[in-house]
Fold these 3 entries.
Entry 1:
Amino acid sequence: MGVVPNISGCAQGRLAFRRITQGFRLRSLRRDGISLRSSPLWARCCSRGRRRALLATETALALRVHAEAMESTANTLARTASNFSHNSASIHGVVRVSASDVIGVEVLPPLIARLRESHPQITIELVLSNRVQDLLHREADIAVRMTTPVQEQLIARRVGRIELGLHASTSYLARHGTPENSEDLLKHALIGFDQDTPFIRKALEKFPQLSRNAFSMRTDSDVAQLNLIRAGAGIGICQVQLANGSVPLQRLLPNFFSFYLDTWIVMHEDLRNSLCCKLVFDVLAKGLEEYIGQKQAQWNRHG
C-alpha cells in the first residue's frame, strides 16, 4: 500500500490528492475498458451532410448515472480534503452550503459577504433548493433547514422560529383596499403555491381556506412569490422579517394567519474537526439568529 500524502488543505496537498484520485480513475477506466470493448459507448450516425455524428449507445446511457455518482463522490472528497487546516490563522477551503430559495437570496448573501471579508481564502458554494439536500451522502456540507433533523450523524443547532404572515405592498392596497377579515381576503388576488408538498399539507390543516384554487397566481418558487407581492400583484405569504426590505410590505390579518417554521443549521459529524466548516457553521448560525431576532431594516444596516 502506498503512502498517502498530507492533504491538510494546502495547495500541495490538494495537488497530491488530485493525482491520487486521477490515478484511481485511470486504472479503473483501463481495467473496465477491457469489458467495454465489446459494448461501445458511442455509435456513428450518418447524416445527410458530410459530417458524421456520434450518438450515445444504451451502454453509455446506462453508465451515465454511475459516472455522475463517481464525479459527485470525487468532488466531495476533494472538498473535504481542502477543508482540514491545522492553522486557524490561515483557514481556507471549499464549503458547500444548501438553503431554500428565500434564505439563499434574501438572508445568506450579507452573511457570506462578511465571512469572505474576514476569511477571503474560504470558497462558498451556495446551493439553492427547497429540496432537502442529503448531508449523509454529502450533497452539501452545511444546510439551513426548516424541518427538525432526524439523522443521528448530523450536528444540528436550532437557530429559532421564522414567522410567516400575509403581506401586500402599499401600492396594491391603495388600489384594491385592505381586507378586514378572512372572507374579504378571498375576494382579493392571492399569490400561492402550485404543487402540493408535505409542508403545504400541514399548513392547509390549519388554514383550509388557502387551498390551491384560491390563488390567482401560482408558483412553487418562494422568491417568485415574494417578488410578486413586492410588485403589487396581490396578497401573499412571506417571512415577517422581509416586510421592511427594499419594497415595504404591510402585514395583513395577523390574528387570522400566522405560521412558524422551526429553523436549523446542520452539518455532517465527520466535519466537526474541520476548522473551515466549523467557522462557516458558526458564522451562519449567529447570523440566522440575528435575522430571526430583529427587524429586516436593522438586518440590512448590519449587512
Entry 2:
Amino acid sequence: MTPPRSTSRRPAALLALGLLAAPPVAPAPPALSPAALARTAEPPAAA
C-alpha cells in the first residue's frame, strides 16, 4: 500500500529545494515574487 521509498524521496527533495528557494524570494516586492516563483518552479518541473 505504501509507495516505494525511492519514488517518494524524489518529490520530497524537489519540494525541499523549492521551500529553500522560496524564503529569499519572499522578501522581494509582490510584483517580482510571482514572477520569480514561476521561474523557480519551471526548472524542477522540466526535470
Entry 3:
Amino acid sequence: MRTAKTKTTETKTKKAPGIVIPAEHAPLLKEVHEAVTSMGRSTAGQAFERGFQFARAKAVLPEKMFGRWMSTVCGYTPRQGRNYVAIHEHLQDWRARLEEAAVAPTVMFVLASATPPKVEEVLTVIEGGERLTVGQVKAMTKTATDAGAQTKGAIGGAAGLRRAAEAKMKDEVAFFTQLAKRILKAVEEAAAVIASGKSLSKKALADKIEMDGCKASLLLRSVIYPKQVDPEQGGTQVAEANLPSGWASVPSLITRLGESSRWPSKEEFPAWVTGKVLPTLRFVVHGDPLPEKAQPASAEVGISAGREVLETVPPLDAVEPTGEDDMELEENVPDRDAPDDQGDGEKEAVHPSAASANLVVTGG
C-alpha cells in the first residue's frame, strides 16, 4: 500500500529592496517624511510644500535610492515624487496665482514641464473661470512643441525661415520675462528695506540680481536690436532700433544691473533703486507707466564697427555687443536662495562674461 505524500510549497514573501541611509542624512529624511505625512488634502499650496520637502530628500539621495525611498517610506511612486519636485522647481513664478486659482496638483504636474508662455496661456484660461481637465491642459501645452516639431522641417522658403525666427524670439522673450520678474521681486524687497529706514546692502542685492541682469541684457539685445550687413566690410553690424516710447533706456539699465561695479555710490544708491530701477522694471514686467522723471530726456543709438553704444541722460558707459552670434542658455535659470544680508558691506564686482553667466555664444 502506497502512502500518498503531500508536497508542501513554501510561500516566499518578496522583500522590498533594502535602503541604506547614511547616518548624517537620517535626521533630514525623517523630518521630510514627517512633514509630508502630516499634510492635509492635496491643494496647490500643499503640492508646492510636498515638492519642497521631496527636493530636500532628492538632494542627498542617489537617483535610484530616492525612488526606492519614495515608494517604501513615503508611499509615493518615484514618478509622483519627481512630479512634485518639478512643481517646486519650475512653477515658483506662478505660485501665488496657482494657489489663488486652486489649480489641482495633477494639472500642475503637466504645467511643470511646459514652457513659460504655455504656463501663462493655461493659467490665464483658468483664471478666466474655465475648469480644464488634465487632458485639455496636455493638449494646450503640446501645441508649441509637438506641432512645431512636425512643421519646422516641412516648411521651406521665406515662410519657414520666418517661422524659425519667430520661434527663437518667442523663447528668448519668455526667458527674458522670467529673469525680469525675478529681478523685480528682489528690487521690490530692497525698496521695502529702504522704505523702512534700514540700510540697504549693495552686495546683498548684487548677489541676487547681478547674474540675472547679465543674462537678461544679452537676451533683450538679441531680441530688440536688428542687424544688417555692412556693404563695405562684409560683416554684420547692429542697426538702429525703432523702440516704442519708454523702452529706449531699458537696455542700458538692464545691462547696468548686471554690472554692480557701475552702480551708483552708497549715498546715491537708495534713490537710484527706488526712483529709476523699480519703476523701469515695473514698466518692463507689468506695463506700468513710467513716471516722468524715470523717462530719458533723449536716447541716441550709435553704431560703430559692430559695437553698440546706447547713450541716455544721464549718460552710461558703452556696452559691448553680443555680435552676430546666436545665444542660448545652457541651463534653466538658477534659483536664488542666498540670505538677505542687510549689512553695509560693499561689493567690488567685475562684469561677468557671457561664459560666467552660463551663456554659450556659438558662431553663426
